Amino acid sequence: MIMKKWLILILSIVLILGAATGCNSGSKQDSAPSSSSEKKGENITINLQMWEGPEGEAMRPVVDAWNATKASETGITIKLTLLGRNGYSDKLTSQLLSGSEVPDIVYPMNWFIPQFAEGGFLEPLDSYMAADPNFDVADFIPAALDTGKYKGKQYGIPIDMSEPVLFYRKDLMPNPPDTWEEALEAAKNFSKNTNPNSPTQFGTTLYAAAGFAEPVHMWEELFWAYGGEMFDENLNPTLNTEAGIKATQYGVELVKNKLVPPDYTNYEYPQTLGAIQSGNVAFVQQWNAAWADLSNKEKSPLIADKIAYAPIPGVKQADGTVKRVYHVHTITLAINANSKHKEEAFKVISYLSGKEGGLEYTLNGGATPRKSIFTSEKAKEKYGDFYTFLANEVDKSGKVEPPLISLVYINTKIINKYLNAAWAGMMPIEEALSKAEAEIKEQLAKNNEI
Amino acid sequence: MHKYARIAMLLPASIILFGVTFYPFIFNLYYSFMDIKIYNYGDPKFHGLSNYAQLVQDVNFKSTISFSITYVASCLVLETLLGFALALLVNRCHAGRKFWFPFLLTPMMIAPAMVGIIYLGHLDSLTGSIAYYVKTIFGISDSLLTGKLGQFVMILIDTWQWTPFIFLLVYAGLQSLPNDVYEAAKIDGTNAWQMFWKITFPLVRPALAVAMIFRTLDLVRTFDQLYIIKGGADGFSTLSIYIYQTAFQGGDFGKASAVTLILFVVLTWLIRFLFRILMGRTQSV
Questions:
Q1: Choosing among B23, B39, B114, B130, which should be mutated to test the A contact, i.e. which has the most A CBs within 10 A?
Q2: A266, B60: Cβ pair inside 8 Å?
Q3: Which of A5, A202, A264 is the closest to B2 by Cβ?
């Protein structure tokens, strides 16, 4: 009986210790040499984390090539980890907030950089950039490089650049619209509601998926072209201006005249792509990444040989020129502030975003925003003139949003909400923009940014 | 068994349970009283009841509550009525049951996120098959993804997926009912409605209650298909979606924690209420 009691007690202690060890095993591994950022003799393993999909698959051969050819000379091996695309930023937030030293290199969208940088979760890269003679800063498209900055410091190096351009049916419209007024007229001409003889159901689409930042990005291309700025020098929001009203009026006209599909409030990248691939719309304002699918005969059998790209419409100026502005955002490579191997991590970033690694990445499907890469002969061979076009347009007319902690919330919850209210006719434009300004100010104050 | 032996046997599981439920709960409670965001995560400040007070003025929170009530009530009523009716029907229908019975359960075997992806495609006004047939047959060209019609469609999607759950539990209950009770009732001259109301329903009520309680809890916490299809926008947001967006889009962990506490209180109250109503006073929690 006593023996039985002792056996039970010993078994219980073993089970408890086993459970406790299991719960703590994660944190122990983080600090032990057996973590993925480890020193095995002379060799250091740098953990690079991206998300799966075209970007992750484009990076894999670049990493494999480094490990095959450069690992021995540099003493650095790269371990590529691909997380699920959906919810990547949430997982990344949890990882960085936990203080884990792994991964060494992360892949945040540029609009998350202010929050992470302010919280001390990302390493400033300026000193590393200055110390690396091979890191050619001037070769980057300036607007793209600016997306990785916060409070004057560089936290992210852009590895993928996105900007909306105009894709249109060249068989239906030999001359694409050059201004937003012309775009509205074209939309009327190619919508059955205003032109029963239209060859397409609708003229265009309206990026309006509620709760997303992208509709605001699209709207900014009108707003900035009309001369608007989101904030003044004191960070007071300045949306309710002539520029804001004109920019919003475009969407109001599209919805009021039924020039866009009725479920436009669900429209973002996949829906817009589907609309033009199915031949139901004549032109779209869409992210540059869509060109790969639109020009592919297997993915767009109905329109692959009928689609073309053009500069985003703009606003005619007094001197007759057209002012266009491209919203630019990027996905960046940044260093985890808790990484134990920051110098080595930057060496990897320098290569992956450089003229050799970055070119390889771009040829595999990425879009590293270096002028030398976008205008290279190899890029032209693979993508025709598209990347040269992007480089020229963005270099001339690219613009980035101000780096604010509150920006994600402002775009997804405030501006998006009021733009949708105005577009749907639920609220006059001035009232919508005015209310948006008030809420933006409140949010900035909550986050101590004003 | 000796008292200490009993404690020792329960201790490992209790520690694990404490670690994964009680400890996070306490931490969540702590966060709900703090000003804690991504950018000040290392240095949170005491915020008192401000996180809770903000919710009272938050238009998005109010619309979340309003949508949640409509969504939960509508889905629960529809799923209960249809599930119960289906169970009664299948209970009487024996021909080929082994063949078609599994098909009845198929919708609930699909992951909710996948359901969202499937219907997002089918409901697109330009390229969706369901949208096409709705327009062709019923002449409805309005968007099936927005407004009141969109809310109705979301309710129908959930009903389609989870009616089989209620059907399954009620059917299991019906299968276990003794035949002699019905035989005795027939001899006494009871009609079909009396048999249902006086015999079938009271006897199957516990199974139905369990099904409804489970569904209510799941409906309040709905996330997957709603988020995939609507992203919490247009007021199509449940408390789970609101918490997720507040934490990871707004970066406000304090406010998200406050809503989590509210969700916990709501669910606890709902369980007690449903047990009392559905299981009767003698079996209330």
A1: B39
A2: no
A3: A5
What would be the CATH architecture of the domain defined by A43-161+329-396?
Answer: 3-Layer(aba) Sandwich (3.40)
Is the minimum CB–CB distance between B50 and chain A shorter than 8 Å? no
List of residues 6+ apart from B223 with CB closer than 8 A: B112, B238, B240, B241, B244
Q: What is the DSSP letter of A53?
A: T
A115-138 pLDDT, tens digit per residue, is 999 999 999 999 999 999 989 999
* A216, A415 Cβ separation under 8 angstroms: yes
Q: Does pLDDT of B282 surpass 60?
A: no
Contact (CB<8Å) A8/B38 = no
Structural domains in chain B, CATH included, are 58-283 (1.10.3720.10)
% of residues, chain A, pLDDT over 90: 83
A87 against A18, higher pLDDT: A87
CA triplet A430, A432, A438: central angle to 5 degrees? 100
DSSP symbol at A313: P
Give B92-134 pLDDT, tens digit per residue. 887 877 888 888 899 999 999 999 999 998 998 888 999 999 9
ipTM, two decimals: 0.79
In CATH terms, are A43-161+329-396 and A164-327+404-446 the same topology? yes
Total number of residues shown for chain A: 450
CB B191 within 8 A of CB B198: no
List, for residues B40-74, the tens digit of each pLDDT value.
998 899 999 999 999 988 888 999 999 999 999 99
**Where do the structural domains in chain A lie, given as residue ranges?**
43-161+329-396, 164-327+404-446
Find the CB nearest A263 among B37, B38, B146: B146
Chain A residue numbers touching B127 (CB-CB < 8 A): 274-275, 278, 280
The radius of gyration of chain A from alpha carbons, rounded to an integer in Å, stands at 25
Predicted model pTM: 0.85
Probe site for chain B from A91, A115, A202, A263 (most B CB atoms < 10 A): A263
Residues from chain B that touch A405, judged by Cβ atoms under 8 A, are 38-39, 251
CATH number corresponding to A164-327+404-446? 3.40.190.10
Distance from the B65 Cα atom to the nearest Cα atom in chain A, whole angstroms: 17
Q: What is the distance between the alpha carbons of residues A67 and A61, in angstroms, rounded to a whole number?
A: 10
